[in-house]
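Appendix B, example 12.
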Amino acid sequence: MRVLVTGAAGFIGSSLSRYLLARGDEVLGYDNVNDYYDPALKESRLARLQDMKGFRFVRAGLEDRPAMERAFEDFRPHRVVNLAAQAGVRYSIENPQAYVDSNIVGFVNILEACRHHGVEHLVYASSSSVYGANTKLPFSVDDSVDHPVSLYAATKKSNELMAHTYSHLFGLPTTGLRFFTVYGPWGRPDMALFLFTRNILAGKPIDVFNHGHHRRDFTYIDDIVEGITRTLDKVPAPDPGYDFGQGTPAASAAPYRLYNIGSDRPVELMRYIELIEENLGLKAECNLLPLQPGDVPESHADVQALRQDVGYAPTTPVEEGIRRFVAWYRDYYGA
């Protein structure tokens, strides 16, 4: 297949692109390589893709509609995976306009391009953040998600609504994946695992929010990539018998689906830190802080629907995932 992957210089996008190329697909990567975090890391991820057969790259933002149109016109993708977005819950409080430009305007551009170029299937990144103030655990795609607690979460919920509109009006098959705390080698420097590892090695204290009482559904990158690929290969079909009065919000009469994609094994944050310490052979100095605005104290993915529909089966325990990350970090940074 020809697959257009937005966010191809990012953590998940670069890993997915490598997987698709290795199985024989052609991939057009699309990314603006912005400086939200270290662009050198993004360039290093891209360098690993450039030598692989079947890879091409466009350097542009989602909000650049002419560039987007040219990419679709030139590449003619069969399927699209939209992973590009302005990420980060806390940063959305400081710079809301960046989220509107990338996550709202940019997503409309993706939908329009898919519609007009006959794309067979659009898979797009949503987020566990959409569960917001929900307290029922585990988080289920059958639950209402009407109380986001950050603008980032609100933009991701908006993406789900926009996707449904295009599935309904134009028959565009769309699948949204609500990601739960992805980690692993080549990960994002603004995420806890990266920040903790860097500071512990430097002998600096680490900021531990909610006084360490967080629980997160940490999901290893290889499990995420497998889940995305299985989902990409299963195009949702319309369901004429769908009951809008009784049916799940994760499906529709239109060719539209939503899934959680996580490990289904939440881990205490302090246990996570202990595992980093064990692999580094160093103790962390913890700066215990209250819950941050926009954060939620616990996340736990109910992934039964994804298991049932595509055979998703995350297998990497957090002990192994952290070991692999620390080994990569030491090698990449010479630490």
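The first strand starts at residue 2 and ends at 6. The mean pLDDT is 94.
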